[in-house]
Each structure stands twice: as C-alpha cells, then as structure tokens.
C-alpha cells in the first residue's frame, strides 16, 4: 500500500509523541506497574489520535483504517508493550463495534468521550473458563423490563482498574452459542460492578490488568450494541481490527529488538573483536529483519484489503499468527546475543522478551488462528470441515463457524 503525504504527516506526529511523551517515562511506569492513562489519553485526544477512523459526528476524524494502521505501527515503537496495548484497547478493541453499530445516544455517551480521551474503555470478553473460546462465556444478561441484570465475571481485562466503561460480551438467551450473545456497554460505576486487584504479569507491566465481577448489575437495554443475539458476530468483526492491531503493534517493537541488538553487539567485545563481526550473528540479524519486513508486507496487504471492504478473516489471522511467532523467536534470538546482560531486567531486550510473548495469546491464541486459516483453506479434518472456497468465505459465514 502506498502511503500519502497525509499518512506520512500522521506518522511524524505519532513518532514525535512516542519519543516525547512515552519513551522518557517508560522505566518509571514499568516499575510502578501502571501509567497515568487519563493524562496520556487526554493528550492523545487533543491530537485527534483516539478517533482516527471514527465518525466525525462523534468527534472522530472519519479517516479510513489505513490511517489508524499508521498510528498503531508507530505506537509500537514505544520502549514497552504495555502502554501501546492499553491505547490500542481504547481505539481498536473496545470501541470499533460501538462506533459502527451503536445507537446515536450510546455513541454520544461513551464514544465521544473515549475519542476525546476523557473516558477510558476496556473490552470484557475473556473469562476464567473461556479465553480464546469466546463461544464458551458464561456471563449472563437476563431481561428485566427495559433493563438487563448482568451476572458473571471477566478475566485478564486490560485497562480495567482505570476504565469508565466495559464493552462486554454476555449471554442474553439460550440456544446456539453464536446466536445467544449480545454486546453491552456497562458503566464501571454501575452498582454491582467490582474490579479486582491488579494482576501480576510476566510482561506488559505498565498496563493495568484485572478481573471484573458483575453482581446483579442493572444495565439499560439501550446500552446494547446492535440487535440482541448479534453479539458474537459483532465481536468477531471487532476481532478483525484487534488482530490487525496486534500485528501492527509488533512490527516496530521487533525492529527495535534488532536495532538495539546491532548496537550492543557492535560494542560488545568477545574473543578479540566485536561480537557483531561473527557471521552467525550478523547473518541471524539480517534474517530477523527480513522476517519483520515479511510481516509488514502481509499486514499491510490485509489493511489494503480491509480498507477496500474485502473480507480479511484469513489475512488478519495470518498476520496475527506471524506476529505471535516472531514475537517469540526474534526477542529470544536477540537476547541470546546480549548474553548475561540480556537476562537483566533493565535492558530493553529483556522487556521486549517479556512483553512480546502476549501476542501469541491475546486476541485469539496461535492455535485459534491456525484453526481459522485451516477452515478457510478447506483442510480442517472431520465431518464439519467446509468445502474449499479459496479463502473467500464471507465474514459472517466464517464468524459463525469460528467457535
């Protein structure tokens, strides 16, 4: 995809923001286990960066997703994964379905302040017994007049301790698991909502993650996004942007791994010369950078198709899968070249090693991505395998089969 001057200007804006407002404070935020999301989101909102592809009537810039993609890729250059992840939750996980399918009153109440940066959003789908298996969620929303009564719990919810609202997937009926669910916007201050203690994690330490509990939470039915029973489909559509975001956030972080390792191995002396001078080292780094460029090409091909209105279920799943794979292999290989220093927490490669591991899990594990790709290739074994269709199944058809 060819980037325009407008794309490049946005790229410069985001790059400057990351270098000025995020990277100098990363070490402090990582040590604290959180960052001042309201302060940072307000600054992003002032620049219009929280609503790049959101409707203009609710404060967005109404640009196509390629501009959001530029934003996300540059955001990934931050010297940690936690802060970009928290921001991407706001722009690409908790609000896409709300922006596309929410009623005007709901969008005015929650989307407009989210774009402005005066509200923090979170996506509440995963549960203790249902992570990648979205169809297996147990949280219920029982109709009670003009309201729902919500009961259940969600787990591993990024932004939860600071969130003003949760875009929450719930069961609103019986029947087939892909037809009995709805998406609700639940205010964090509603009676019966409780956010648990912050979870201690391997990586992404600067982002806040916690469980959320719902005990007879009364939510107006007007807070439902779309029609009752359409929640599974809407969440699957929302996952497309989330998975593209996951791939985009990975690219610059992996490049940082390679470039910082080049700098370190050029300075590190071993056996009478720079470690970088060893063929095994510089060949490995060259191959890593090649893999990053392959990921970038695949991801941007998916984005170009997405902007054109095409189904990108296969390409987005492939990009997410490749990002997860490289998020494990490249930091691991780079850390090896850092030796003992790479094992120290204060080094950038150590943080990248920890943070990037989540890419293969969050937003659908690698195994789920492989299952989706296999289905769309028509090679899934068993009586329910779809016939080959060249990967061009409709988004609705695939999301109904995904789980």
Automatic annotation (TrEMBL):
Q: Which superkingdom, per the lineage?
A: Bacteria
Sequence ranges assigned to domain Acyl-CoA oxidase/dehydrogenase middle in this UniProt record: 122-217
GO MF terms, alphabetically ordered: acyl-CoA dehydrogenase activity; flavin adenine dinucleotide binding
Q: Which InterPro entries match?
A: Acyl-CoA_dehydrogenase, Acyl-CoA_DH_CS, Acyl-CoA_Oxase/DH_mid-dom, Acyl-CoA_Oxase/DH_mid-dom_sf, AcylCo_DH-like_C, AcylCo_DH/oxidase_C, AcylCoA_DH/ox_N, AcylCoA_DH/ox_N_sf
> Per the UniProt entry, what are the Gene Ontology biological process annotations, in alphabetical order?
fatty acid beta-oxidation using acyl-CoA dehydrogenase
Acyl-CoA dehydrogenase/oxidase C-terminal domain ranges (all copies): 229-375
**Which prosthetic group or cofactor does it need?**
FAD
Please note every region of biased composition (Basic and acidic residues): 394-403
Assigned keywords, A-Z: FAD, Flavoprotein, Oxidoreductase
Q: Which SUPFAM superfamilies match?
A: Acyl-CoA dehydrogenase C-terminal domain-like (SSF47203), Acyl-CoA dehydrogenase NM domain-like (SSF56645)
One Gene Ontology cellular component annotation held by this UniProt entry: cytoplasm
* Location of the Acyl-CoA dehydrogenase/oxidase N-terminal domain: 4-117
Q: Where is this region: Disordered?
A: 383-403
Q: Zinc: is it a keyword of this entry?
A: no
Tell me which Pfam families the record gives.
Answer: Acyl-CoA_dh_1, Acyl-CoA_dh_M, Acyl-CoA_dh_N
- What family does the database annotate? Belongs to the acyl-CoA dehydrogenase family.
What name does UniProt use for this protein?
A: Citronellyl-CoA dehydrogenase
Q: Which organism is it from?
A: Microbulbifer yueqingensis
